[in-house]
Write a structure and sequence with these properties.
The complex is a heterotrimer of chains A (about 325), B (about 600) and C (about 625). Helix content of chain A is about 5%, strand content about 45%. Chain A is an all-beta fold. The chains are: A mainly beta (about 325), B alpha+beta (about 600), C alpha+beta (about 625). Chains in contact: A-B, B-C.
């Protein structure tokens, strides 16, 4: 979930005018091509979808099965970045035209983040490190000083909204922090396997959470310097992502192939499995919460489900056979 | 269906064709056979149903049915594909049709390269196809602005990026070796783009490089094939080719270039894209002779590398050490036992010669059927769970099957000396499949389980001795007929399954001609000194049929006649036919008085005849 | 010249020749390797098709038609039958018989009837071909013998015309071929840049490259063919072989396009129309041409005229049996080629006694067919003693014999095809100075300057210079002695009056005729200066520039010239002395085998580097190695 700092001023307004047309835009990156393998024909529409006011999903941009993450320039909604199999793509015109930003030396972009306090700065997570652009992805350079030579597989990259150039990276061997725009990195938490997701609380910028492959879920209450395991979240299987609920500081949700959906409504003290109503043994790929508090679960190649009671009951949404890789919520763009 | 003479006809007799004109005429006749076969399958009353991009390129090459080609190109370009497997066929049509197709058809191809985002893929062969295609299209349409290409980059930017990567790849291949070495099918996905480069690149540097890499790959193919059949270790293979060793795209290239084995059905599918351009390549005689005229038994020791490890490895691409020993009646090949590719690798085998290899399973080997989300994560940027369950539906059907016979394992270590192979296994507790599988072909005869513990058999003109180091039982071999097969077929053959974590296999091969009888062979094997233990780790001391004393302990360096094997000293290629230093960028191909040197340092091809 | 018998036979075939009759060819759509290869094979097939289309069902196949049938793998029975008929007739042609039958033997070795193959084999026992007396004769003879004895190994002496066994013949042929290649790659060919005889080297070399079982001989054949084709590419002006020729003829020396060499330019590079009947012998190259792959590098040398280039090469004369201090005179060849014209020469003297052409300026024309686009002068030497230097003949009847052997002009005073011991030539870039000092008693006491019918604005200026325009080239010709004009008559063959020789008459060609400038003075000279019309505002401006060039000369006691060329070089050249350029004597002895932008080789090195831009091919005959490389 991205750019909540810009979202917060309107959250109170949301509750006041809950029935009014939602004052936000909601995007997902979805791959709807089951068992796609390089060389097979793409027979469906994949990539970026925006939820319309009527609740339907409107595709825009290229039909790309490989988009793993999405980011917007906070100053200009037409400036869009996607992390994909080919690397990093950038559009300056709302997705009509795109340019690949990287050359052959970077591939398989895992995550992308824009610094809200330095919006020309774009961070790209790669399977073999981290690349940074300081010119809106016109050019990209690797900035890996402080990352280990081996062990820098980077699945998640998130920018601290409180300070320019303060960025966290979820890597193969732990969580790394830079405070100088990726000139230097240091490890703030060590893991044996990959850190899969990092999130900053929309309610408290000092509060961060992480989902990992074999170290369970982690929490930091001091701006990401000290991390501890969230008791009650299993560690023996991989957690794919974790999300806050922008409408309720006590609520978080975790998506996991093995565990399905796990939620907490007491700030992480206790966790409950919320799979009733989902397919049996749901292989949950991602969870997300929209600014109305609706919880989404993308079940591996099944469909996208949503819950208006934070997982107690589920309804199938649209996008049959989809994998949703990313949820993005932004204040509604001015028409 | 139209006849495919070389697929349906008798197996060719393997002979040297010394006369340049007859060799070239025979090569052109094979090329023409492919073109004629595919062209004959085109029905102008059913253009969408019978014309694909290969047939368009072939008709254009034949100068036939140009109107139909134009029509079909317009249809196909209305819905362009994505990724390298669409790109190189589109390039083939764009170039074979560049002065034959209508302006509208040509424009439609060009437009597809603006409108449709092409995935670069994630394997070595994907990138070769992707960048060779992007290079050639950018050269065909120079000086065009960024907005006219799907990349959002100008012709010059695309060309520069593609050129840089292709040179980087060639540099890697010629210094530490290919990652996808000796692949049964993917060889086409290197040979075809490189032929395109050699035929169509304007830049003499890239033309020369394409030509040189083509020679390099075909020289290697010639050296590791037995009567045209690719055997031994493969970076990547599949459930069919790993046992019916002939049934591979590699055999199409052996047939087309060397004429020493039948063509696979449909000319290997992708082979159809090599054929329209094939007459722009002439196989150097020295390579032809390596393929068809062996001077006797030989050992070839080569280096290669693994697929890139994104994580969970101390090295990005650990080295692979390949040993191949080829004789008239059989060949033995192996790597040291390493997961060079997490899904499709084949580590070792003994493969015997069949006069007609079609439908035969002339091979023997064992493996640990490894299946692991973590290993998937090592080579793919993925999560642990999805791939093991999805890969079987993505063209690799046996990946998650306990009785599979395709794959490498981190728990297998192999040593080969001439025609002796020792494979040791130390499978970690909790591994998905806690057993090993040995493949026993339907085409073996006289399979005899001797009380000595050896299993004896005969395949073609080869005697085989297989020694399992732990108790076992037999299960039928059930075959996946294709990568997308749902059902499994019983084609005959068995799998020796040994459900023990600490395990091993010894195989010793010999020529029938070396012994008076099968019994004499068995007696000779039973007389060979053999000691082994499985605890705490598997360890073998064995004196081979060739009199070599081998000591091999799992996790330790093998010792031959008291001397540890020093893999660090291995060259990129070392043998009677191919020689190259690691890091040298220079391959010397030799056969008798003929020599060709490919020097990528100076972009030099040197042909020499020793008088 | 038995080959012209074959040409005359072919001349009776009246089937369209697309490329000969078509407008000038344009450039290929692109120069990618596949395009060049495809276009090359299309030209090869055009040649083959022409022979097949000329087949008259009512008439028996010609030898060439039977061969093409075999190459196309059509009607092997018909070809077999026809071969039996052809071989039942009395055979003739010597080495010109040997290589066609070698081609038939190999093309048909797996499809002719056993009887036809046996008949061919037996012909090599019953017919006795002479080996001839020229370099090209021996190359054809021994290449054919080498290949046929490989095709029929292990056969005894009585089965071969010369009584030697297969092994003996093979060894002898191999020895000569290696010896010849050794000479050609150390001091150069004797029959260099021949307008017609190039085929008689290229064809046997192609056959060795294609059919020899010995990989070394295959490689050597291919390497020699590369050398011949690269040199052709380097010496042609838009496909036309110009400049000095060891051997040419009365026609090709003025209609420079009209030569077998042009067939090879066309086949290899496609930038010029082929000569009629594909040059006659061209078919014998075409039947195996698919087995040769002209390197794109050669194409670029042949077609790239975007820059001026100068090439200095070393050749040799024909072997002298007597009346000479040296067995072979070194030949120092200079070529200077620009977009609009080319200037070429050797230093003068005798290279070949009959058919040599020493120097010329040849200009580019939009279509060279029928155009006499060249200017030069020569001393029309006629000398039995000179002929005896080269031939083992008696003096008295040779001159008459030559006419009957197809060289009608040898003895005539107005001939334009000649070299002479009394001519010395110096060239610097596009300036030529030719000096003559003809002793008393020498036949003939004059020099002839060739002035083409295709020259425009020929202007005899008061200054003594004669100015003219040829294509986009301005020419200035300075005779050093008084002269008169004569029309140049042609030679017409008359019906034979018995015997096998030719009979000729002179005739006046229709329409515009060429003229010769006749200067009947034994001490004499010619200066020619060429320039591109683009270099001057007008023809008048060119003339003014030439008239302003410092020039001093004397003819007594020997001709001597001091001249500052249009390119600002000061040249001093005295007959019998080394030329002096900007104060430095020209040191011919330091010349390399090849030296220029495209071909380079040291004398004696057996190693030739062929280059264009970043592409290079090295032919190393020491190690029988071909090396291709591209400089990044």
């Amino acid at each position: 979930m991205k750019n909540f700092r810009r979202l917060l001023p309107m959250l109170g307004l949301l509750t006041a005018v809950a029935t009014a047309t939602p004052a936000y835009d909601f995007y997902i990156c979805a791959n709807i091509n089951r068992n796609y393998v390089i060389g097979s024909k793409i027979v469906t529409t994949n990539g970026i979808f925006q939820r319309t006011d009527a609740g339907a999903w409107r595709h825009f941009g290229y039909n790309d099965t490989s988009i793993s993450a999405l980011a917007f320039d906070p100053r200009d909604r037409n400036v869009i970045y996607t992390a994909t199999l080919n690397g990093l793509w950038r559009s300056l015109d709302g997705g009509k035209n795109w340019r690949i930003s990287n050359g052959w030396d970077m591939t398989e972009g895992r995550d992308v983040a824009v610094d809200p306090n330095a919006p020309d700065h774009v961070y790209l997570a790669l399977p073999d490190g981290i690349a940074v652009s300081t010119d809106r992805a016109e050019t990209l350079v690797r900035r890996e000083n402080g990352l280990p030579e081996r062990g820098k597989f980077t699945q998640a990259i998130k920018v601290d909204r409180t300070r320019a150039g303060r960025v966290f990276a979820g890597c193969e061997v732990g969580i790394f922090l830079t405070e100088d725009g990726a000139q230097n990195w240091r490890q703030v938490f060590a893991t044996k396997e990959t850190v899969n997701d990092l999130q900053q609380s929309p309610h408290d910028p000092q509060l961060w959470v992480a989902a990992t492959q074999s170290a369970g879920a982690l929490i930091s209450r001091d701006g990401g310097l000290k991390w501890v395991r969230l008791a009650g979240v299993p560690t023996e299987r991989a957690l794919y992502n974790i999300t806050f609920d922008v409408t309720n500081p006590a609520r978080l949700a975790i998506g996991s192939w093995a565990h399905g959906v796990l939620t907490t409504e007491d700030g992480g003290a206790t966790w409950t499995s919320r799979n009733a109503g989902l397919p049996e043994n749901p292989r949950v790929w991602r969870v997300g919460v929209d600014p109305e508090g609706r919880l989404y679960a993308s079940v591996f190649q099944e469909t996208l489900f949503h819950s208006d009671d934070f997982g107690r009951t589920w309804q199938p949404n649209d996008l049959v056979g989809s994998l949703v890789n990313y949820f993005v919520t932004l204040p509604k763009a001015a028409n | 269906m139209s006849a495919q003479p070389s697929f349906e006809g008798p197996a060719p007799v393997v002979t040297t064709v010394p006369a340049e004109d007859q060799r070239l005429a025979a090569y052109h006749a094979r090329v023409d056979e492919v073109l004629a076969w595919r062209a004959s399958r085109v029905d102008l009353n059913d253009i969408p149903g019978t014309m694909d991009m290969a047939s368009i390129a072939i008709l254009l090459t034949l100068g036939r049915d140009i109107d139909a080609c134009n029509e079909r190109v317009l249809q196909m370009m209305a819905e362009p594909g994505t990724g390298p497997f669409w790109m190189f066929p589109a390039v083939c049509v764009a170039f074979t049709g560049r002065d034959l197709l209508s302006p509208e058809a040509r424009a439609s191809i060009r437009e597809a390269w603006r409108t449709t985002r092409q995935l670069r893929g994630d394997t070595e062969n994907h990138w070769v196809m992707y960048y060779a295609s992007l290079y050639l299209m950018s050269e065909l349409y120079p000086n065009e602005p960024a907005e006219t290409w799907y990349t959002g980059r100008s012709s010059e930017e695309n060309l520069a990026e593609a050129r840089e990567w292709l040179i980087h790849w060639m540099d890697t291949t010629t210094t530490v070796g290919q990652g996808e070495f000796n692949t049964t099918h993917y060889i086409g996905e290197y040979a075809i783009p490189m032929l395109f480069m050699a035929s169509w690149a304007k830049d003499p540097v890239m033309k020369q490089r394409g030509r040189m890499i083509l020679d390099w790959m075909f020289a290697e193919l010639a050296t590791v094939t037995l009567n045209g059949v690719l055997r031994g270790p493969n970076a990547r293979s599949d459930e069919g080719s790993v046992i019916e060793r002939w049934n591979a795209l590699a055999s199409y290239f052996s047939w087309l270039l060397f004429g020493n084995t039948p063509s696979p059905a449909g000319y290997g599918g992708w082979g159809l894209y090599f054929a329209p351009v094939a007459k722009n390549y002439v196989l150097p005689e020295v390579i032809h002779r390596i393929a068809v005229e062996r001077d006797g038994d030989y050992v070839q020791r080569d280096r290669a590398r693994t697929r890139r490890y994104w994580r969970y490895s101390d090295e990005l691409s650990p080295p692979v050490y390949k040993t191949n020993y080829l004789r008239r009646d059989y060949a033995v090949g192996s790597t040291q036992g390493i997961v060079n590719d997490v899904i499709q690798a084949h580590v070792w085998d003994v493969t015997w010669r069949e006069e007609d290899p079609r439908g035969k399973h002339p091979t023997m080997f064992s493996l640990h059927p490894h299946s692991s989300g973590r290993m998937m994560q090592a080579q793919f940027s993925t999560y642990p769970e999805p791939m093991p369950v999805s890969v079987p539906f993505e063209g690799k059907p046996s990946y998650n099957s306990p009785d599979k016979i395709l794959g490498a394992s981190p728990y297998e270590k192999v040593f080969q000396d001439l025609d002796t192979v020792i494979a040791l296994y130390d499978i970690a507790p909790g591994e998905h499949f806690p057993h090993i599988n040995g493949f026993f072909s339907k085409d073996l005869v006289n399979v005899t389980e001797d009380k000595s513990g050896w299993i004896f058999a005969q395949g073609g003109q080869a005697y085989l001795a297989y020694r399992p180091l732990a108790p076992y039982h037999w299960i039928p071999y059930l075959h996946f007929a294709s990568g997308w097969a749902k059902e499994r077929q019983d084609l005959g053959g068995r799998v020796l399954t040994s459900p023990h974590l600490k395990n091993g296999t010894i195989v010793q091969a010999a020529s029938v001609a070396e012994f008076e009888s099968f019994a004499a062979f068995q007696a000779a094997i039973n007389a060979l000194p053999l000691e082994f233990t499985l605890e705490p780790v598997p360890a073998v001391k064995f004196t081979t049929l060739r009199g070599k004393q081998v000591a091999f302990t799992y996790g330790e360096t093998p010792v031959v006649a008291g001397v540890p094997v020093d893999y660090a000293q291995w060259k990129l290629f070392e043998g009677p036919y191919l020689n190259a230093e690691v890091g040298g960028r220079k391959l010397t191909i030799t056969h008798g008085r003929l020599q060709r040197v490919l020097d990528f340092n100076t972009l030099t091809i040197k042909d020499r005849v020793i008088e | 010249m038995k080959k012209f018998l074959a040409l005359l036979l072919l001349a009776t075939v009246a089937v369209a020749q697309p490329s000969y009759e078509a407008p000038m060819p344009g450039p290929p759509p692109d120069t990618r390797p596949d395009t060049l290869r495809r276009a090359y094979l299309e030209r090869v097939n055009e040649t083959l098709d022409w022979y097949l289309e000329a087949i008259d069902p009512a008439k028996p196949l010609t030898r060439e038609q039977a061969l093409v049938k075999l190459v196309r793998r059509e009607d092997a029975d018909l070809a077999s039958q026809r071969i039996l008929e052809l071989l039942a007739e009395p055979q003739s042609g010597d080495m010109f018989w040997m290589f066609p039958w070698t081609a038939i033997a190999f093309a048909g070795r797996d499809q002719l009837s056993p009887e036809a193959r046996a008949a061919i084999r037996d012909a090599w026992r019953t017919y006795f071909p002479m080996r001839g007396d020229t370099e090209n004769h021996w190359v054809m003879y021994y290449s054919s013998l080498f290949l046929m004895t490989e095709l029929y190994p292990g056969e005894p002496g009585e089965t071969w015309f010369n009584g030697k066994s297969s092994a003996e013949n093979h060894a002898e042929a191999r020895d000569f071929l290696l010896h010849w290649m050794d000479i050609a790659t150390t001091i150069g060919q004797g029959e260099f840049n021949a307008t017609h005889y190039i085929g008689e080297y290229a064809i046997p070399m192609l056959y060795l490259a294609t059919w020899s079982e010995d990989p070394a001989m295959r490689q050597r054949g291919r390497m020699l063919l590369d050398l011949l084709m690269a040199e052709l590419a380097d010496n042609t002006l838009h496909g036309v072989l110009r400049g000095p020729n060891a051997r040419t003829d009365d026609n090709s020396v003025i209609q420079r396009w009209h030569a077998l060499a042009t067939y090879f330019s066309w086949t290899m590079y496609g930038h010029i129309p082929p000569p009629p009947h594909y040059g006659g012998w061209g078919i014998y190259f075409a039947i195996a041409a698919a087995h040769y792959d002209p390197p794109p590098l050669f194409y670029r040398i042949a077609t790239d005229r975007e820059y001026d280039r100068e090439q200095h090469d070393h050749k040799r004369s024909r072997r002298r049996w007597r009346y000479s201090d040296v067995e072979m005179m070194p030949v120092y060849k200079t070529g200077y080629i620009r977009r609009d014209y080319a200037v070429g020469s050797y230093q003068g003297g005798l290279s070949d006694p009959i058919q040599a052409h020493v120097w010329d300026v040849t200009w580019a024309v939009p279509d060279p067919r029928g155009v006499h686009n060249t200017i030069f002068s020569t001393h029309p030497l006629s000398s039995s003693r000179v002929l005896q230097m080269y031939f083992t003949e008696y003096p008295d009847w040779m001159i008459d014999l030559l006419a009957s052997q197809g060289k009608p002009s040898y003895g005539v005073p107005d001939k334009i095809l000649s070299c002479s011991p009394y001519e010395q030539v110096f060239q610097d870039l596009d300036t030529i100075i030719a000096l003559y000092d003809i002793p008393p008693g020498i036949v003939h006491q004059r020099i002839n300057g060739f002035f083409s019918k295709d020259l425009l604005d020929v202007t005899e200026a008061k200054s003594g210079w004669i100015f003219a325009r040829g294509g986009n080239t301005y020419l200035a010709y300075r005779p050093l002695a008084p002269y008169a004009w004569e029309d140049l008559l042609g030679y017409r063959q008359l019906p034979r009056t018995g015997g096998s020789g030719y009979v000729w008459e002179r005739f006046r060609p229709e329409g515009e005729v060429d003229r010769i400038l006749v200067s009947p003075h034994p001490q004499n000279g010619t200066i020619v200066q060429a320039a591109s019309a683009d270099e001057f505002a007008s023809f008048a401006a060119f003339q003014a520039a030439i008239n302003a060039l410092p020039l001093a000369f004397t003819l007594q006691p020997t001709p001597a010239v001091k001249f500052t060329t249009l390119r600002g070089k000061q040249v001093e050249f005295t007959y019998g002395a080394a030329p002096v350029l900007d104060g430095k004597p020209v040191g011919y002895t330091s010349w390399k085998l090849f030296e220029g932008p495209h071909l380079n080789a040291e004398l004696g090195a057996r190693k030739i580097t062929i280059s264009h831009g970043r592409q290079h091919r090295v032919l190393d005959f020491n190690t029988v190695t071909t090396t291709d490389y591209v400089t990044p």
